[in-house]
């Protein structure tokens, strides 16, 4: 199985704060990779570096075999769901979808199906400022999935979702994986990790402390569940 994202010796600091400290990672095609770590560990910086939203001091990133430095076309292969979606408040949901379609320059593939699955039909003419947090997150999911990109990067995708929407999101992720899509997900919801992850990457203070399956994580730290295994990593490194 080929590597869809390759990261080598990646460093990034903000002022005196070292956020990424020589990250080496490969993410495989058609897998669900979940990046875990406490707040401030470097997860979001890593994702934004892959997206080109953050420029590392050194190191390299390849997406689908292409070095991304000073490039932009590779982003057409990635759909991104941000942790906090700052939508233009004065637009309706439909106007936002139309705007994204115009920016992409091509028609969305799964728009109608997603609108139906996540119950967004009654909200398409509602201004975004008037939507609840959960409904905004469903709009976030619509925008991330409606182009069926080879790579989907989801930053805390379950925020604000009701149980039915969460079930449908998990089914959607599994369906897209079966179709050959690759996922890079951050989450604090361990049940989601248990159910979806092909592999876990645990980052702490800008370093990779573990990479492997859920089963191997539990076995490595001799614990019955993910939370206790991760707690051992944190305690071992004096992070409490």
SSE blueprint:
Layout: E1 3-14, E2 17-28, E3 32-36, H1 43-51, E4 58-63, E5 66-67, E6 78-81, H2 93-104, H3 111-117, H4 133-145, E7 151-155, H5 163-178, E8 182-186, H6 190-196, E9 199-204, E10 207-212, H7 214-220, H8 226-236
Parallel strand pairs: 3-8, 3-9, 6-7, 7-8
Antiparallel strand pairs: 1-2, 1-4, 4-5, 9-10
Helix pairs in contact: 7-8
Could you give the order of the helices and strands?
EEEHEEEHHHEHEHEEHH
Structural class given helices, strands, pairing?
alpha/beta
Q: Describe the sheet with the most strands.
A: 6 strands, mixed
Major sheet strand order = 6-7-8-3-9-10
Q: What's the CATH H-level superfamily name of the domain at 3-85 and 148-167 and 177-236?
A: P-loop containing nucleotide triphosphate hydrolases
- CATH top level class name of the domain at 3-85 and 148-167 and 177-236: Alpha Beta
Shape: globular
Helix content: 25-40%
Radius of gyration: 18 Å
Write the CATH architecture name of the domain at 3-85 and 148-167 and 177-236: 3-Layer(aba) Sandwich
- CATH structural fold name of the domain at 3-85 and 148-167 and 177-236: Rossmann fold
